[in-house]
Design goal:
The protein has 349 residues and is mostly helical. The chain contains 14 helices and four strands. The radius of gyration is 24 Å and the shape is globular.
């Protein structure tokens, strides 16, 4: 049943902008799509390896700053009197560098922190996010600090027969975000279905047994962290070139909380879970805004989240899977013919 969720979402959201005239709603869909990509990347760690990263927003912010600075250029002084100057480049180059550098950051954090587990790993990720935020806030020569980086160029893509096309409209950015979301989903699906994915799930379910079978826990978890960070960096790059202004608030802890809510409510450890949770909690504030005051919106937002966690503790998608299995079992039981042998009248014992 739930295997049709992702294709259904793709069809609906590919056709949705064609009948949408409100730019505010289209903007909300773009931001929701970017956050959903982040949620999918976090689910690769939290859902399939069982490792909770509360500093995941650091990779999102690093991707945003790397892509913005690559496009804008910079001139900074380093220790010992050295200077590094970059005149600015193509936004697409910034997008690729954001993926590369955040993936490298994820690899380094994984190598350092996956030697510990549980609360220690959580502390390492939170500390990393806070350090990166402070660097962005205080290295004014590079990041402009609280003054923000402004006038970030729109994403530019090479199009055959048209040359380089700047994605200035909301419609163009919408389909760019949709394309990256689809690519991220397919990559995660491929990883989960592979031998590497089985190793991740094995470590989550029973690490001692997985280690006894020869699975290298540190290597497996580090690769998962690298891919997860690279996806978050790609989302950060899309955000920077769409919003066109970023400041250290991009590292706010509330973004990580939003990602965790999307993953847990949708169903961690499922491919469709972050999609369902992302769409629900990304668009819910938009749906509530016209009908109630901001204070009431947060009350309803929290009440819905609590209701989901109480009624569907494993998340929406696992609940739908269980419902589908029960319906199928009842239909199978109803179609099963009764096996009753007629009694033979007058038969001898």
């Amino acid at each position: 049943m739930t295997r049709f969720i992702a294709p259904l979402f793709l069809v609906v959201f590919a056709l949705l902008p064609l009948g949408l005239t409100d730019p505010y709603l289209l903007n909300a869909l773009i931001i929701t799509g970017i956050l959903t990509i982040c949620a999918m990347s976090l689910n690769l760690l939290l859902g399939f390896t069982g490792q909770l990263s509360l500093g995941h927003v650091a990779f999102f912010g690093i991707g945003a700053y790397v892509s913005a600075l690559t496009a804008l250029g910079f001139d900074v002084s380093l220790p010992f009197g050295q200077r590094v100057t970059h005149e600015g480049g193509a936004p697409l180059l910034g997008f690729l560098l954001a993926i590369l550098i955040t993936g490298l950051a994820g690899y380094l954090i994984g190598r350092l922190s996956f030697r510990v587990r549980g609360a220690y790993f959580v502390i390492v990720t939170i500390s990393f996010a806070e350090v990166v935020r402070l660097v962005a806030l205080n290295w004014v020569e590079l990041t402009q600090g609280p003054l923000a980086l402004t006038a970030i160029p729109n994403m530019v893509l090479p199009v055959p027969s048209l040359g380089d096309v700047a994605l200035r409209s909301k419609m163009q950015n919408y389909y760019l975000v949709l394309a990256v979301a689809v690519a991220s989903y397919l990559l995660i699906a491929r990883l989960v279905a592979s031998r590497f994915g089985r190793a991740m799930r094995g470590l989550k379910e029973n690490e001692s047994l997985a280690l006894s079978l020869g699975i290298n826990a540190t290597r497996t978890l580090t690769i998962a962290a690298t891919v997860s960070a690279a996806m978050a960096g790609a989302a950060g790059s899309l955000y920077a070139h769409y919003i066109r202004i970023i400041d250290p608030d991009v590292f706010l802890f509330s973004y990580t909380v939003t990602m965790v809510i999307m993953v847990v409510s949708g169903g961690k450890g499922t491919l469709a879970g972050p999609l369902v949770g992302g769409i629900l909690f990304g668009l819910l504030p938009v749906a509530l805004r016209p009908v109630m005051a901001p204070e009431a919106q947060w009350i309803v937002y929290g009440a819905i989240l609590i209701a989901i966690l109480f009624l569907m503790p494993r998340g929406i998608v696992p609940a739908l899977e269980g419902l589908g299995e029960r319906i199928a079992a009842r239909r199978k039981a109803g179609d099963k013919p009764t096996d009753v042998m007629p009694a033979k009248m007058g038969a001898n014992p």
